[in-house]
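ok so I'm stuck.
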Amino acid sequence: MSSIQQTPPVLSPQAVPGQDAPQSLAGTQAAPRRLAQVDALRGFALFGILVVNIGVFASPFYGTGIADPVFSRPRDAVVGWLIAWLFETKFYLLFSFLFGYSFTLQMAAAERSGSAFEPRFLRRLAGLAVLGLAHALLFYQGDILLTYALLGGVLLLCRNMDSRRALRIALSVTVLVSLAWGVLGVLGLSDPPTADELSQYATEAQAAIGAYRGTIATTIAQHWYELTSRIWGVIVLVQGPFVFAMFLAGYALGRHQALADPWRQPRVLWALCALGAVPGLAGSAAYATSSLATVSRGWELSGLALDLLTAPLLSMSYAAALLLAMRTRPGAWLAGRLAPAGRMALTNYLMQSVVCAWIFTAWGLRLSGSVSPGAALLIAVALFLVQLPVSAWWLGRYAYGPVEWFLRALTVGAWPAWRRVPAERHPDG
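replied:
not stuck anymore, here's the structure
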């Protein structure tokens, strides 16, 4: 893909991350063109998620605020701080926003085809749930797909909600949950973790390294332990509420087709950049600093609360900046490279985990705890740079990514065409 469609005439149906445009089941009404800018945003989010996820693969000390005894050099701390500042808690929000936006496009696609939307979407969610559970147990315990499947059912109940009400609820959830964590942060200042508790955390991290370096069975068992002992709490109390808030924000903007031609009002994009970047970067800087091993653990929850409040602003600022960049030649070139990866984002997301599991766990090289933060970042960049041309090559020949094809078949209850016919080879098709 060499350019981004700047003024699409119609709103193109998108699906869940990576799903191709829905087609009319009756075959009598052609689906509108895909929005390449939406695919590019999804590809951009995919890269940011990889940068964060690979840190979890590389070391169980990642995100604990406890110094890794092997990689505690100043340069390791700097890399960790930069990733926390610019990447953590930002890109899954953008991914979630696009899920909500795509939800409205799937509704429109179902209406065009004369199909009942609810059973189609429920089948899609069931497919996501199965994929997510398998992904979490086998490869990556921090999976997001199962959360999407569960909260997607709640979003389905909101499909007739007024867009303004959806935005108010999204804002309320963001503020209230952030404030709740802020209160916990204030309380935590007077009761920080004890030395014994920190020692216990370090012991558990070392045990996790041993499990990941052991066998496939110990790797899966460790994933199950982390899912049931720790990660479910993070999903329920931190990630889940903000995923749903961004679902609603995407749904609200999707109702108004805001991304069909986002350049129609460039001042809005510039305002999002300016208003979101300053508080977003400041809040993220406080969060990244509070996460350093050299800072008292008592500040960790306060930093998290501030980040949770401001991260959505920075995520939207990132998206607006990329959309503005698409109006320039270099930005259009970049977006053209990102769009194919975003079009098959579900396949790429799962493949990232498979590759990382092969590098860091008993599925392959068993390098957990042996790769520095800087090296892990370079691996993430290299992996994504490989995925970009591979995605473009694949979509030049096939109508869907492999996992997207499976999910679409489950959604429509029929086998979609696998190979792309010549008329479909247009890069924006």
